[in-house]
Request: fold
Amino acid sequence: MRDRLGLPFIDEGDKELLIEPDFIIISVCEINEITLAGTDTHIQKEFIAVIVVILDVFSLLVVQIFLNLLIIMQKNFAKQFDMQTVEMKDFTVRME
Reply:
């Protein structure tokens, strides 16, 4: 078997074990260009990825601002509601 494959083996008694080679793999994204349909405009995928990340960060900021506005509006409504409703605390006399 050793002669047919041409791979390094170790003899351990009745077994022949294949020595596994060490691999270092480096993978790289190829720069691919996308042509927009109906035009001669070429856009690189890296540029599209940057736009997607910027839009994602922008959308997160918009959501955060919206939530903060909701919290502020809810507090203002609670204050205004408290001022307009008649409650028992409005008729109590406090003596010290």
Observations:
- The chain has a mean pLDDT of 79.
- The two ends are 102 Å apart (CA to CA).
- Residues 45-87 form one domain.
- The longest strand covers residues 9-12.
